[in-house]
Amino acid sequence: MTCCFSNLRDKEIICVQDGRRLGYVCDLELDPITGKICALIVPGSVGLLSLTKRGRCCIPWENIVRIGDDIILVSGAFPIKPSPSKK
């Protein structure tokens, strides 16, 4: 079975431990040598009331439990890290 990036972006990511909605895929992290997907990137917020800074949550490919028609189930803890500043 194959899947396009545009199809992944339409799926919501849910953590199976606590049912938390992590968001929608905004980017992929790829291994430049093998071309395999290493992680899914989900936008997030960091700071007081989630208003101060944008961040990102990296979900390692091996933490994906199941990719369904509408959602992607993942397992593990995924802290939101600040996005690298653009220069």
Strand order of the largest sheet: 2-1-7-6
Sheet with most strands: 4 strands, mixed
In total, the number of strands is 8
Distance between the amino and carboxyl termini: 40 Å
Structural domain count? 1
CATH structural architecture? Roll
* Share of residues in strands: over 45%
CATH superfamily: PRC-barrel domain
Unreliable spans are none
Main structural class = mainly beta
Q: Do you know the CATH topology?
A: SH3 type barrels
List the defining traits of the structure above.
single chain, 87 residues, mainly beta, SH3 type barrels, four-stranded antiparallel sheet, 8 strands
Textual characterization of the structure:
The chain has a four-stranded mixed beta sheet, with no helix packed on it. The chain has a four-stranded antiparallel beta sheet with strand order 3-4-5-8, with no helix packed on it. The radius of gyration is 13 Å and the shape is globular. It has one helix at residues 5-9, and strands at residues 12-15, 21-24, 27-30, 37-46, 53-60, 64-67, 71-74, 81-82. It starts with a helix and ends in a 5-residue tail after the last strand. A hairpin with a 6-residue loop joins strand 3 and strand 4 (37-46). The protein has 87 residues and is mainly β. It is built from one helix and eight strands; from the N terminus they run H-E-E-E-E-E-E-E-E.
